[in-house]
Design goal:
Layout: H1 2-6, H2 23-41
């Protein structure tokens, strides 16, 4: 029954199907979701994009610094 309730969550908060039958992994998943919610409330943003360290120099933008 809990699985049906998960479908009401935001897409990024629904656990992957491969862990649905592993209680410990589900607890870890939802602990992580709760922490991300708290962090977002405090202004920390989680993105899938890497940091600026992997950006390359753009010759056309050199004069814009």
């Amino acid at each position: 029954m809990g699985v049906l309730g998960w479908m009401e969550l935001a897409e990024e908060e629904v656990p992957p199907q491969r862990i649905w039958h592993h209680e410990e992994r589900l607890l870890e998943w939802f602990d992580s979701v709760a922490q991300k919610r708290k962090d977002r409330a405090q202004g920390v943003d989680y993105t899938d994009v890497g940091d600026d360290a992997d950006m390359t120099e753009n010759e056309a933008a050199v004069g814009l610094r």
